[in-house]
């Protein structure tokens, strides 16, 4: 049953002002989009959580796409407020760490769900986020006058990747402890010395038909999202008729599951690695297979239950091994804090590889390794 509105002295139910109700709907919807993805969200469920009927949602948002736009906008309000009051890089980092915990959904909405907006709303949200990122990059450059625009952009992406970890892989820390830990990692990232280096070669062209099809599917999933891609699209990208795909894979879902298993198999095993070689090997494989790891980072929601459990088990094993490796490097921390460091280092690799054009920088693997190592070493 929905929440009952309070009675006024005249016996009628009071109504919240329209702006307040609109914001409440957007904030509640953000959690739904975060948990279930655009296609899994029901306006009726959002309405029920707010205590109104589903038709009443349309007084504030014309459709689900507009509701998603509102959810993203209210999340960016938190980021905007954090940056607007910051007088220095340290203060910006502290305030954004608080915003990351106040609205942990916003980063997933930007990375995974924004593609469902109409063109105008998507362009507006993208422009707003870029303005906020540029404001943070300005703080980085003022604190680090040794950096050019490209390197300050790299550090901005890495710092935002750290701040996004509660949205993707939260850890059980109390709020203030979590905020301080996030801010500390992001601050370390912004202080990283960025070396020069050499390029890492991309993956070799796939030889077998199955591999070529999977590569085509992964590229499309990464660009458009799993739900938007059709079998015919995959066939066309691979140069075959859509129905011919079924000679190699039983379904589109089979291709997604295969992609996740392939990414899991490529991840380096931390056993026997020191921290430096672990981070370097992870960065190298992510940079070499950037589209595959882009799918790995954003499309988990679409896995069937058995495959999702398999993925979570594999990821949990990998994380525990990272934590074990980090024990000798960061003995002053507990395992929960080390887990946060592991998620942060991997998020840096994922985001630098797939966000914008950073992956085209000639020395991006060396640069990303240095930044991720600074993140975990503090």
Automatic annotation (TrEMBL):
Domain HTH tetR-type residue range list: 19-79, 207-267
SUPFAM superfamilies the UniProt entry points to: Homeodomain-like
Pfam families xref list: TetR_N
Superkingdom of source: Bacteria
PROSITE patterns reported in the protein's UniProt record: HTH_TETR_1, HTH_TETR_2
Keyword DNA-binding recorded: yes
Keywords: DNA-binding
Record field: compositional bias (Polar residues): 1-12
Coiled-coil boundaries: none
Protein's UniProt keywords contain DNA-binding: yes
InterPro entries: DNA-bd_HTH_TetR-type_CS (IPR023772), Homeodomain-like_sf (IPR009057), HTH-type_TetR-like_transc_reg (IPR050109), HTH_TetR (IPR001647)
Name of this protein: TetR family transcriptional regulator
Organism expressing this protein natively: Pseudonocardia endophytica
